[in-house]
Protein backbone atom coordinates (compact mmCIF):
# COMPACT_ATOMS: atom_id res chain seq x y z
CA UNK A 1 0.00 0.00 0.00
CA UNK A 2 1.36 3.43 -0.98
CA UNK A 3 0.70 6.03 1.73
CA UNK A 4 -0.08 9.44 0.22
CA UNK A 5 -0.25 12.96 1.67
CA UNK A 6 -2.19 15.58 -0.31
CA UNK A 7 -1.70 19.34 0.19
CA UNK A 8 -3.87 21.88 -1.64
CA UNK A 9 -5.46 25.09 -0.36
CA UNK A 10 -8.51 24.56 -2.58
CA UNK A 11 -10.75 22.41 -0.38
CA UNK A 12 -12.97 21.09 -3.16
CA UNK A 13 -10.07 19.99 -5.36
CA UNK A 14 -8.18 18.46 -2.44
CA UNK A 15 -11.14 16.47 -1.13
CA UNK A 16 -12.25 15.38 -4.62
CA UNK A 17 -8.77 14.14 -5.51
CA UNK A 18 -8.44 12.36 -2.16
CA UNK A 19 -11.79 10.62 -2.71
CA UNK A 20 -10.79 9.47 -6.19
CA UNK A 21 -7.38 8.23 -5.08
CA UNK A 22 -8.99 6.28 -2.22
CA UNK A 23 -10.82 4.25 -4.86
CA UNK A 24 -7.45 2.82 -5.92
CA UNK A 25 -6.70 -0.48 -4.16
CA UNK A 26 -3.02 0.26 -3.66
CA UNK A 27 -3.23 3.90 -2.50
CA UNK A 28 -3.98 5.09 1.04
CA UNK A 29 -4.49 8.84 1.50
CA UNK A 30 -3.21 9.36 5.05
CA UNK A 31 -3.46 13.17 5.23
CA UNK A 32 -5.23 16.07 3.53
CA UNK A 33 -3.57 19.42 4.25
CA UNK A 34 -4.75 22.97 3.41
CA UNK A 35 -1.29 24.58 3.25
CA UNK A 36 2.42 23.93 3.12
CA UNK A 37 3.13 24.35 6.84
CA UNK A 38 0.48 21.77 7.72
CA UNK A 39 1.81 19.45 5.04
CA UNK A 40 5.32 19.73 6.46
CA UNK A 41 4.13 18.95 10.00
CA UNK A 42 1.99 16.02 8.85
CA UNK A 43 4.77 14.63 6.66
CA UNK A 44 7.15 14.63 9.62
CA UNK A 45 4.50 13.00 11.83
CA UNK A 46 3.16 10.42 9.37
CA UNK A 47 6.15 9.85 7.05
CA UNK A 48 4.07 9.14 3.92
CA UNK A 49 5.58 7.40 0.90
CA UNK A 50 4.52 10.16 -1.49
CA UNK A 51 3.53 13.81 -0.92
CA UNK A 52 1.33 15.37 -3.61
CA UNK A 53 1.79 19.13 -3.24
CA UNK A 54 -0.02 21.96 -4.99
CA UNK A 55 2.40 24.62 -6.20
CA UNK A 56 0.24 27.64 -5.41
CA UNK A 57 -0.39 27.49 -1.66
CA UNK A 58 -0.35 30.39 0.83
CA UNK A 59 2.81 30.72 2.91
CA UNK A 60 5.06 27.90 1.78
CA UNK A 61 4.41 27.04 -1.86
CA UNK A 62 4.63 23.48 -3.14
CA UNK A 63 8.31 23.66 -4.08
CA UNK A 64 9.39 25.20 -0.77
CA UNK A 65 7.27 22.64 1.10
CA UNK A 66 8.86 19.81 -0.86
CA UNK A 67 12.35 21.13 -0.14
CA UNK A 68 11.67 21.17 3.61
CA UNK A 69 9.98 17.77 3.62
CA UNK A 70 12.86 16.19 1.71
CA UNK A 71 15.34 17.52 4.28
CA UNK A 72 13.48 15.77 7.12
CA UNK A 73 11.60 12.76 5.76
CA UNK A 74 12.50 10.00 3.26
CA UNK A 75 9.28 10.69 1.32
CA UNK A 76 9.07 11.38 -2.38
CA UNK A 77 7.36 14.55 -3.59
CA UNK A 78 5.21 15.41 -6.61
CA UNK A 79 4.28 19.02 -7.41
CA UNK A 80 1.02 19.73 -9.23
CA UNK A 81 0.06 23.11 -10.65
CA UNK A 82 -2.33 24.97 -12.90
CA UNK A 83 0.62 26.93 -14.30
CA UNK A 84 3.20 24.39 -15.43
CA UNK A 85 5.88 26.87 -16.45
CA UNK A 86 9.35 25.65 -17.37
CA UNK A 87 11.05 27.91 -14.84
CA UNK A 88 8.97 26.43 -12.05
CA UNK A 89 9.85 22.97 -13.29
CA UNK A 90 13.56 23.77 -13.08
CA UNK A 91 13.09 25.16 -9.57
CA UNK A 92 11.19 22.03 -8.52
CA UNK A 93 13.79 19.67 -9.93
CA UNK A 94 16.59 21.65 -8.30
CA UNK A 95 15.22 20.90 -4.81
CA UNK A 96 14.80 17.19 -5.55
CA UNK A 97 11.12 16.92 -6.46
CA UNK A 98 10.41 13.54 -8.08
CA UNK A 99 7.31 14.37 -10.09
CA UNK A 100 5.84 17.43 -11.78
CA UNK A 101 2.49 17.48 -13.55
CA UNK A 102 -0.34 19.87 -14.41
CA UNK A 103 -3.58 19.85 -12.43
CA UNK A 104 -5.45 19.20 -15.64
CA UNK A 105 -4.44 15.52 -15.59
CA UNK A 106 -7.09 12.91 -14.80
CA UNK A 107 -7.16 11.25 -11.38
CA UNK A 108 -6.11 7.90 -12.86
CA UNK A 109 -3.10 9.61 -14.47
CA UNK A 110 -2.19 11.13 -11.10
CA UNK A 111 -2.49 7.69 -9.51
CA UNK A 112 -0.17 6.24 -12.16
CA UNK A 113 2.41 8.97 -11.52
CA UNK A 114 2.19 8.33 -7.76
CA UNK A 115 2.94 4.64 -8.40
CA UNK A 116 5.89 5.48 -10.67
CA UNK A 117 7.37 7.91 -8.17
CA UNK A 118 6.81 5.52 -5.24
CA UNK A 119 8.69 2.88 -7.25
CA UNK A 120 11.71 5.18 -7.45
CA UNK A 121 11.17 6.68 -10.87
CA UNK A 122 10.83 10.38 -11.73
CA UNK A 123 8.04 11.83 -13.80
CA UNK A 124 7.84 15.14 -15.64
CA UNK A 125 4.84 16.00 -17.80
CA UNK A 126 6.06 15.63 -21.42
CA UNK A 127 4.60 18.96 -22.59
CA UNK A 128 6.20 20.88 -19.74
CA UNK A 129 9.50 19.12 -20.38
CA UNK A 130 9.36 20.07 -24.06
CA UNK A 131 8.61 23.70 -23.17
CA UNK A 132 11.51 23.73 -20.74
CA UNK A 133 13.93 22.74 -23.49
CA UNK A 134 12.98 25.79 -25.55
CA UNK A 135 12.37 28.29 -22.77
CA UNK A 136 14.66 31.27 -22.25
CA UNK A 137 16.78 30.76 -19.14
CA UNK A 138 16.77 33.42 -16.49
CA UNK A 139 19.60 35.94 -16.82
CA UNK A 140 19.35 36.63 -13.08
CA UNK A 141 21.56 35.12 -10.41
CA UNK A 142 20.09 32.98 -7.64
CA UNK A 143 20.49 35.86 -5.17
CA UNK A 144 18.76 38.30 -7.52
CA UNK A 145 15.87 35.84 -7.81
CA UNK A 146 15.80 35.56 -4.01
CA UNK A 147 15.45 39.35 -3.78
CA UNK A 148 12.60 39.40 -6.28
CA UNK A 149 10.88 36.48 -4.58
CA UNK A 150 11.19 38.08 -1.13
CA UNK A 151 9.74 41.34 -2.42
CA UNK A 152 7.04 40.13 -4.78
CA UNK A 153 4.20 41.08 -2.40
CA UNK A 154 5.36 44.69 -2.09
CA UNK A 155 7.79 44.24 0.80
CA UNK A 156 10.11 47.16 1.45
CA UNK A 157 13.86 47.06 0.87
CA UNK A 158 14.34 46.84 4.65
CA UNK A 159 11.94 43.89 4.90
CA UNK A 160 13.67 42.07 2.05
CA UNK A 161 17.06 42.72 3.63
CA UNK A 162 15.86 41.34 6.97
CA UNK A 163 14.30 38.25 5.34
CA UNK A 164 17.48 37.43 3.41
CA UNK A 165 19.95 38.52 6.13
CA UNK A 166 21.48 41.12 3.81
CA UNK A 167 22.15 44.82 4.19
CA UNK A 168 19.72 47.27 2.61
CA UNK A 169 22.52 48.53 0.37
CA UNK A 170 23.21 45.03 -0.93
CA UNK A 171 19.53 44.53 -1.69
CA UNK A 172 19.44 47.86 -3.59
CA UNK A 173 22.46 46.74 -5.63
CA UNK A 174 20.73 43.48 -6.53
CA UNK A 175 17.54 45.34 -7.47
CA UNK A 176 19.52 47.73 -9.67
CA UNK A 177 21.18 44.79 -11.41
CA UNK A 178 17.82 43.07 -11.94
CA UNK A 179 16.27 46.18 -13.49
CA UNK A 180 19.21 46.56 -15.84
CA UNK A 181 19.14 42.94 -16.97
CA UNK A 182 15.38 42.88 -17.54
CA UNK A 183 15.09 46.40 -18.95
CA UNK A 184 12.21 47.41 -16.73
CA UNK A 185 11.90 50.56 -14.57
CA UNK A 186 10.54 49.14 -11.32
CA UNK A 187 11.03 46.18 -8.99
CA UNK A 188 7.31 45.41 -9.26
CA UNK A 189 7.55 45.09 -13.03
CA UNK A 190 10.63 42.91 -12.69
CA UNK A 191 8.71 40.59 -10.35
CA UNK A 192 5.86 40.38 -12.87
CA UNK A 193 8.28 39.44 -15.67
CA UNK A 194 9.96 36.85 -13.47
CA UNK A 195 6.65 35.30 -12.44
CA UNK A 196 5.32 35.18 -15.99
CA UNK A 197 8.47 33.36 -17.12
CA UNK A 198 8.36 30.99 -14.18
CA UNK A 199 11.65 32.15 -12.66
CA UNK A 200 10.12 32.79 -9.23
What do you see in this structure?
The chain contains 10 helices and 6 strands. Strand 1 (2-7), helix 1 (11-21) and strand 2 (27-33) form a beta-alpha-beta unit. Helix 4 (86-94) crosses helix 6 and helix 7 crosses helix 9. The mean pLDDT is 90. It is an alpha/beta fold and 200 residues long. The protein has helices at 11-21, 36-46, 62-72, 86-94, 107-118, 126-134, 142-150, 157-164, 168-182, 187-196; strands spanning 2-7, 27-33, 50-54, 76-81, 99-102, 123-124. Strands 2-1-3-4-5-6 form a 6-stranded parallel beta sheet, sandwiched between helices. The longest helix has 15 residues, at 168-182.
How are the SSEs placed, and which strands pair?
Blueprint: E1 2-7, H1 11-21, E2 27-33, H2 36-46, E3 50-54, H3 62-72, E4 76-81, H4 86-94, E5 99-102, H5 107-118, E6 123-124, H6 126-134, H7 142-150, H8 157-164, H9 168-182, H10 187-196
Parallel strand pairs: 1-2, 1-3, 3-4, 4-5, 5-6
Helix pairs in contact: 2-3, 4-6, 7-9, 8-9
Q: How large is the share of residues in beta strands?
A: 15-25%
Number of helices: 10
Find the count of extended strands (DSSP E, 2+ residues). Answer: 6
The radius of gyration is 18 Å
Estimated helix fraction? 40-55%
Order of helices and strands: EHEHEHEHEHEHHHHH
Average predicted local confidence, pLDDT = 90
SSE-based structural type: alpha/beta
- Widest sheet, order of strands: 2-1-3-4-5-6
Low-confidence stretches: none
Our measurement of the CA-to-CA distance between the termini, rounded to an integer number of angstroms, reads: 36 Å
Label the overall shape: elongated
Main sheet record: 6 strands, parallel
Amino acid sequence: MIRVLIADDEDMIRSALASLLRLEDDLDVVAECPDGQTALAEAVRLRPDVCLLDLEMPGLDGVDTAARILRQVPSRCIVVTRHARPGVLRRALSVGVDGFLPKSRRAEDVAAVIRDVAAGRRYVDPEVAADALTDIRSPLTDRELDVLRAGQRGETIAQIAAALHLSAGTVRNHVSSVLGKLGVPTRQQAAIVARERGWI
